[in-house]
Amino acid sequence: MAARLDALDRKILAELQEDAGQSLDEIAGKVGSSKTPVWNRIRKLREAGVIRRQTVLLDAEALGFDACFFVLIRTSEHEAAWQKAFLAALRARPEVQEAHRLAGDIDYILKVRVANARAYDAFYQALISEVKIHNVTALLSMEEIKSTTVLPV
Asked: Where in this chain does the record put each HTH asnC-type domain (predicted)?
């Protein structure tokens, strides 16, 4: 069930998504409130699970992770034990930034960030040594056109 948010909550969330490192005073000034009500609302949004955590976004290329692959996975395995092993393998691989189970022809899609094609191959070899996978297709992203974590609140 979606949380009930008023206009001030939405403004606060928009500011936090833009830059969670802002001070309470800065956020309060931008949303037209004072510090204490903003702090109370942020606390309530955390308690309600609307705000899961605060983190920083790093520049992958600045850190040498120049290659982004989207990996399409088809499996002929659908029993619980295989799925548990597969999910554990994905969670243990820091290269996997996102993993989604899909409806349709493809069972899973992964977003994998690595230094280069050789690093992707090492990831791929490690993954297929841990779990049986029917078919893997890797697509190299040539250009990131849009990437955001911001939700349209």
From this structure: 5-66
Domains and CATH numbers, the chain: 7-47 (1.10.10.10), 61-140 (3.30.70.920)
Predicted TM-score of the model (pTM): 0.87
Report H helices in the chain.
7-18, 24-31, 35-47, 80-92, 117-130
Backbone φ, ψ for residue 122 (5° rounding): -65, -40
What are the pLDDT digits (tens) for 70-104? Answer: 999 999 988 999 999 999 999 999 999 999 999 99
Strand-pair partners of 111: 70, 98
Distance of CA 78 to CAs 103, 107, 112, Å? Answer: 13, 10, 23
